[in-house]
Amino acid sequence: MTFSWKEEAAKGPILALAPMSGYTDTAYRQLIKGIEPRTICFTEFTSVDGIKYGSKNTLSQLDFNPDEERPLVAQIFGKNAANFTEAAKIVEAMGVDAIDLNMGCPAKKVVSSDHGSALLKNPKLAAELVEATVKGTSLPVSVKTRIGINGLELEWFIQFCKDMENAGAQLLSIHGRTAKQMYTGVADWDPIYEVKKHVNIPVIGNGDIKSAADALAKIGNLDGVMVGRGTMGNPWLMREIAAAFNKEKYTPPQSFEDKLPTIFRHCELNVESKGEHRGMLEMRKHFAGILKGFEGASEYRARVVKIETLKEAYEVLEEVRLLIKNAKPLKTEFFD
Ligand SMILES: Cc1cc2nc3c(=O)[nH]c(=O)nc-3n(C[C@H](O)[C@H](O)[C@H](O)COP(=O)(O)O)c2cc1C
């Protein structure tokens, strides 16, 4: 069945896992979707130039499990319109369900190449890239952006969003920070609510959702929420949010012991998708979000950054389990 953002929005609030380069690979996405199947996942941002020229590394960023991740949105970035058309064809042939254009990344390397949030400075080119993508695919095309470059100019930003809609975007995901803010300060959702009043496509808000209560408080007139960093070390968050929107009760695992099967599952998914060596190297950064909030946590974090095998990971986690089980908990919630 063809995926449609409007139909998705009609079912209830859209719950999206934010694209996070270096984090939201196929293992992470399968982990989150395994806990909350309603989650719509985005791939990490992937270069259209690399896709067009068949770079192995680039294409491997788009690896996914077609049985576990649908609907999957491939996020692409670049500045060359012809490459967007070509990349869209290739990505569609790989079997994803929708394509998203990155117009929000503030990283120096990305912006200095006129990619990512640099496109906010050039709405004409940004619109051309949307059109070029639409030309290459029958899949829905969307745009993820930020509320501005150096500061907020609301009228200008609303016009930018309308331009993306007119160019063929079928959804906007908006992070409530300017590019200049990077990840500092607090996300401002008010401009996102304003944009929603001026476009006829679904709009998803993004920025600083750390709990189900945040999602309920922030959704306002929007069609959904997108959550990124809040899921690090807390892969149950999307399920908590889904339950809150459905007015259902859901209590995520509280103790380290109860969280362990999910942590093991993440390790296994990494190994399945990348092999043991690379998979475990990838796991190292995720352990930082997991091993905190108990006495001696820093010592274990220092150990896990050297882990190379699944067995080593199990051994460290088992040690932590025994330590925590025998010790008096410092906090009731170890992931606070
Ligand atoms: C480590 C990291 C990598 C990111 N990579 C991407 C990316 O590839 N594409 C993108 O559009 N945004 C990327 N972002 C931004 C997030 O998608 C999101 O907009 C931002 O983190 C704010 O949401 P949050 O407060 O829920 O994390 C990244 C953020 C982080 C922290």
Summarize the structure.
The protein is α/β, with parallel strands linked by helices and 336 residues long. The chain is 46% helix and 13% strand. Helix 2 crosses helix 12 (256-274), helix 8 (154-167) packs across helix 9 (190-198) and helix 12 packs antiparallel against helix 13 (276-290).
List the helices and strands and how they pair.
Blueprint: H1 5-10, E1 14-17, H2 26-35, E2 40-42, E3 46-47, H3 48-52, H4 56-60, E4 72-77, H5 81-94, E5 98-103, H6 108-111, H7 123-136, E6 141-148, H8 154-167, E7 172-178, H9 190-198, E8 203-206, H10 212-218, E9 224-227, H11 237-245, H12 256-274, H13 276-290, H14 297-304, H15 310-326
Parallel strand pairs: 1-2, 1-9, 2-4, 3-4, 4-5, 5-6, 6-7, 7-8, 8-9
Helix pairs in contact: 2-12, 5-7, 7-8, 8-9, 10-11, 12-13, 12-15
The structure holds flavin mononucleotide.
The site of flavin mononucleotide (FMN) has 22 residues, from loops.
